[in-house]
Design brief:
single chain; 399 residues; mainly alpha; three-stranded antiparallel beta sheet; 3 strands; 8% strand; elongated
Length: 399
């Protein structure tokens, strides 16, 4: 194929670009498009030939990379950017990409850094919002990044323009920085909002599985371990531990305190969310075992009275809601088991020690002789109920 067939009747002064057009397997990058556009400035003698080549290179680029939605080119240096949209189907999975292609040949390092930042933002948005249902959000985000990139290119144009003043250049650089900073905040806020939604979906699914598992374990406890633990108390702590975890995740999402790694895939976020209720239920069960085992001032028997059901449900909820509370209680139990601390050495403001001290005080006042196992459980329940309000104030319930 000769250049005449491609719409050019003049001499062939750009053989490299013509060969690229004639080669059906030739890869056309956005840098090539920017170079052809810049030939009008750097080599006016071949400007018309470059204008004839440009449509062919653009068509090849769109065939390989996707449809160009918008583009911008500098007037005083080699530079430009374009938003390119492409629909990719892998099997039954369809995803939409809107990539930012950019090239900038500037001596100003700050502008180069801003260019890299804009391209990175667009890649992050595509990684998190590539699903077809998120196409509107992806389009809005990438248009904002494209707008910021045009500010960067405009500032680069002023730095390359010999007629521009130093004040104009500094103002343009400041505007570009502000635009990129605002685009960064907007991109990250949108991605975090989507990641939190996916994570919470996984949390709800995990809560359903956790509650079902707790019910099965409670039934097994009633059939085989009734003399060891109270099935009602066990189910109360584990189920409400899972529900406390769900409430904790929802509260942190509402307050904006839940920060997730948005580079993780959608399925990884769902899996992480599914484990959260299971962790809450586990913490609730472990704290219950520590209480009824006497490690935190509770009774040595698992046959808790009916009044203890509400207490253990509340303890389970707090354990699931606040991992800090649960880990503090578990660490306290570990210290008791290892014998590394004595009863008198525990800080007075510890929530677990407060329950233990209150139980001992009630025991001294109400039972001159050794109490029965049932009386010990009732004393623990009464002391725990009196201290539960102090527990909420003294412990900073957060993860």
């Amino acid at each position: 194929m000769n250049v005449a067939d491609l719409g050019w009747s003049g001499p062939e002064r750009l053989p490299e670009l013509w060969d690229l057009v004639r080669d059906p397997k030739g890869q056309v990058t956005f840098g090539k498009l920017a170079r052809v556009h810049d030939l009008h400035r750097t080599h006016p003698r071949v400007g018309d030939e470059a204008a004839a080549i440009a449509p062919h290179l653009r068509a090849r680029f769109e065939q390989q990379q996707g449809s160009i939605q918008n583009s911008y080119f500098c007037a005083h240096l080699l530079g430009g950017c374009a938003i390119v949209e492409q629909v990719i189907q892998t099997g039954r999975r369809v995803r939409v990409e809107r990539r930012l292609h950019a090239v900038l040949n500037s001596r100003v390092s700050d502008l180069i850094s801003l260019e890299v930042r804009c391209v990175t933002l667009a890649d992050e948005a595509n990684s998190a919002l590539c699903r077809p249902s998120m196409q509107a959000a992806l389009r809005s985000i990438t248009e904002g990044v494209y707008s910021a990139m045009t500010r960067v290119l405009g500032a680069a144009d002023l730095f390359a323009d010999p007629g521009a003043t130093s004040e104009d250049r500094l103002v343009a650089l400041a505007v570009a920085r502000r635009e990129v900073a605002e685009a960064t905040v907007r991109v990250h806020a949108t991605i975090q909002r989507y990641a939190r939604f996916v994570y919470f979906q996984g949390t709800l699914v995990g809560a359903a599985f956790s509650v079902a598992t707790c019910g099965v374990l409670g039934a097994l406890a009633a059939d085989h371990w009734r003399d060891v633990i109270s099935p009602a108390a066990f189910i109360a702590t584990t189920v409400f531990g899972a529900l406390g975890a769900v409430a904790s995740v929802f509260q942190r999402i509402a307050s904006g305190k839940l920060v997730l790694d948005y580079h993780a895939s959608r399925y990884h976020l769902i899996e992480l969310g599914m484990f959260r209720p299971a962790v809450g239920a586990t913490f609730g069960a472990v704290v219950q075992f520590a209480l009824i085992g006497g490690l935190l001032g509770g009774a040595n028997s698992g046959n808790a009275s009916d009044q203890a059901f509400g207490l253990f449900a509340l303890i389970g909820f707090i354990s699931g809601f606040s991992e800090r509370f649960a880990t503090d209680m578990i660490e306290r139990a570990g210290q008791v088991i290892s014998g590394s601390i004595t009863k008198s050495a525990v800080p007075a403001d510890s929530a677990a020690q407060a329950v233990s001290n209150e139980t001992d005080n009630l025991y001294a006042r109400t039972a001159p002789s050794a109490p029965t196992e049932k009386e010990r459980v009732e004393l623990t329940t009464s002391a725990s109920r009196e201290r539960i309000s102090d527990l909420a104030r003294s412990e900073n319930i957060r993860e």
